[in-house]
Amino acid sequence: MRPLHTLLTLLLAFLAAGLQPALAAPAQEQTSPKPKVIFFDVNETLLDLESMRQSVGAALGGRQDLLPLWFSTMLHHSLVESATEQYHDFGTVGTAALMMVAKNNGIALTEQQARSAIVTPLLRLPAHPEVREGLQTLENQGYTLVTLTNSTRRGVQTQLENAGLADLFTDNLSIEEIKLYKPHLRTYRWAAERMGVKLEETLLVAAHGWDVAGAKAAGMPAIFVARPGQSLYPLAAEPDRTVKDIRELAEVLGKRP
Amino acid sequence: MRPLHTLLTLLLAFLAAGLQPALAAPAQEQTSPKPKVIFFDVNETLLDLESMRQSVGAALGGRQDLLPLWFSTMLHHSLVESATEQYHDFGTVGTAALMMVAKNNGIALTEQQARSAIVTPLLRLPAHPEVREGLQTLENQGYTLVTLTNSTRRGVQTQLENAGLADLFTDNLSIEEIKLYKPHLRTYRWAAERMGVKLEETLLVAAHGWDVAGAKAAGMPAIFVARPGQSLYPLAAEPDRTVKDIRELAEVLGKRP
């Protein structure tokens, strides 16, 4: 009877896993060891883009509603750059995207005006209210915190200084070093290598579904921060966990052995 | 004095080129021979997306203004697929993008509703008014016309049949065959190879800046169709020519030797 019993147990476990995928998450989580390096996406994940709505809206003749379209157009064209084997830094792509959105909506805008509307406000984004405390808790718990962004290294350093978060990070990695935008798989593999750790010893924390999709596809564990107005990409592998903010992230990671 | 004269001539030519980039286009055009195959993008280039505004708007609780955001999100995530080495067909990516836009805007929408709002209307888009006549003129002039799209082969065939254009095309190429979305350089190279011609013997006609960017970067000549609400990607190489519609395209190509 022993082999049959084993078979039935396996079969039941298989059915349970298939029927109740929600149960799989805690099991998976238990197997994840404490990450040696936590990579953080910056814009929206740590910093609040809301304050840009005004400057971008003003550049677009009062059309604050076009902020999501601009952001999406910028992200699309960052991948157009990689797909066509070109590279311009993220601020330049963002400026071009704003000019396209303006033109497509019949709004007059010069390159200089577009650049001013984006670059300075982007460098001065405030942190979401719980971020400083959450990151501080993680650092106190012994975690190594590193940013991993599509922005330039210098840009993200300025952003973190202005948001009062610069002291919490061991390093700031920018894809400008390999000139391939996230979520290219190589960006995640390069980041782990750059920090001298294995992919499975890291963790990506991001508020963007496409970023989570890339990390998971590359073999990097990922936690999604469900900021208002953000959602997962339904066709990608699910994150290992979803949290509402960085305070909850610190609570979750604080319980790991 | 000869070297100085040459230097001055070069300097003046350089300054003139820099100051008047518009002058570069006709010179470049003269060097292009008659293309052996003309590749056409389909959505927006030949077919009018305007009729989708209603169905997408209805799915989004009346928010017709979100159509450009949906389209941009779909294009972004088609490249997310390629960047993360995944592939879902364009209709599935479009459905996922619509669900994300709905969720990010607090609108309830099921996958089935999202799919219905997109797939059927997309297959029944009407041609822009001048397209049939313009393509017919090109065919009469002896050009070989082929579609090259991110949609599935079957999808574009249905679209062309419904729009009354199917008889004008020698073939319909879909990136589903190589599972890499335009503007990946490989898609343009593969298309030329598939038709048995050299890249420089082809021509891409598209109403999207990112498509023109990919073709030019791959070494394929390209003409931009400046449909209302569309603009070039300012950071990419310029197209060989810009036309306002397919009738003007036929006029321009009719003058070639």
From TrEMBL, chains A, B:
CDD domains: HAD_L2-DEX (cd02588). Keywords: Hydrolase, Signal. Pfam families: Hydrolase. Gene3D superfamilies: HAD superfamily/HAD-like, Putative phosphatase, domain 2. Residues 1-24 form the signal peptide. One of its GO terms (molecular function) is (S)-2-haloacid dehalogenase activity. Its EC number is 3.8.1.2. It comes from the Bacteria. Belongs to the HAD-like hydrolase superfamily. S-2-haloalkanoic acid dehalogenase family. This is (S)-2-haloacid dehalogenase. It comes from Azotobacter beijerinckii.
